[in-house]
Design goal:
mainly alpha
């Protein structure tokens, strides 16, 4: 039963970065800055945990590293759309 639970957890964990990567094709108007910040901080904390635990959990680290990168891209897209873009909004 434990191994089945572990595999379900791995699939669920990879859902976050895959969803964030898929959302990079969508309009930046749908990005929630609060959720993006929360997910970025969450992934940074779990990257640290995955690195510090013995033995190191590199699969968990890779998952949260990917999510932190994807959330950073989403955060940049949000800031660019609302604050840095020089094009006029309709």
């Amino acid at each position: 039963m434990k191994n089945r639970h572990t595999h379900i957890s791995l699939v669920a964990n990879w859902g976050l970065p895959l969803a964030a990567i898929a959302d990079t094709k969508k309009s930046p108007e749908i990005i929630s800055p609060k959720m993006t910040t929360a997910l970025l901080l969450y992934s940074c904390m779990f990257m640290r945990f995955a690195w510090r635990v013995e033995p190191r959990n590199m699969l968990l680290f890779a998952c949260h590293f990917t999510n932190a990168g994807a959330q950073s891209v989403q955060g940049y897209r949000y800031l660019d759309h609302y604050y840095f873009s020089k094009t006029e909004k309709k």
